[in-house]
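Would you mind giving me a polypeptide sequence along with per-residue structure tokens?
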Amino acid sequence: MNFTDKNRKELLIDLIILSQIDGVGIKRIHQLIAMIGSAEKVLNSPVSLLADIPGIGREVASRIKENQDRKKAEEIADKVEKLRWDYFLFSDPDYPAPLKNIPDPPVYLFYKGNYIEADSNAMAVVGSRSASENGRVFAENIAMELAENGITIVSGMARGIDTCAHRGALKANGRTLAVFGSSLDIIYPPEGRNTAREIVGSGALFSEFLPGTIPLGPNFPRRNRIISGLAQGLIVIEAAERSGALSTANHALAQNREIFAVPGSPRSATSKGTNRLLKEGAAVLTSVDDIFDQLPRLKGDLKIGKIKREIELTESEKMIVDLFDENPIHIDILSREVSRPVPDLMPILLALELKGIVKELSGKRYILDLS
């Protein structure tokens, strides 16, 4: 971290002050900080400067100057400290990478547990709270298979499909992230307390809501963008035509995430939403192979991670491996990227082939060996 805990707390306080001013939502906070430089500078700017920013205007600018409740924000930050919550600020270098580029990323995100770099290789799983037994079993099994392959499972810990997805990841001794529609001190649904405790030991609980926030209806569509935002793709298992799962799918679409849907009976109310997604272009999901076929980069990222963990590589080999994703690379491009002549690369690539890491294709191209 570039900041001391004290400095980070001050940054959090400034962001809380802004977020509590009527008419200043996440979009405007990002806009203001982008224009002025920091939340502190925004709070200290004159009305005239704020009013000139496109989309702000004099009314909102006046509220920013007149409605700053620092005492309340400090009390909230003290409460966060007392509850021993960790938090990411958008300016943190270790802020979750998948969230960085979504529309309206949280400016602060509270969590319990731990978030690691490997969690960026994640799939979100959502669906009906009143899912069928088949739907529940499928959710648990697909999450289990993904977790066994090193994929982190993201969901919302709601009754039904969400809980089954978390349980599947936990059964596989994998990692899972749960995003709340309440603050972290209010477990919802209440019967999820044991699951929440397990998740803290094998991943993290996330919420952008301040302490004491109860799970009101409008909170859930807002939190859904974080569920899809933390993942590379979204799996929808059983969803009615109007449901939170479809809200998450809309966010996933806006975030350019791949959407998978499990087909169901046209007679089932909880299949109407998933069947509609399929008509609109979602990928059909019947097995874990469908996911890797649509998202080969996911398998590529996992392969690279496994290579680095389990296979001893020279510094030159590591440099080459880091250049690969799921696509072939011509040897001339490799040469240019590492600033070494092709003859020098040939023995390195041969060594990587013998270790089962890359394979040669026609036309002097190389690709990760994902077999």
About this structure: The longest strand covers residues 108-113.
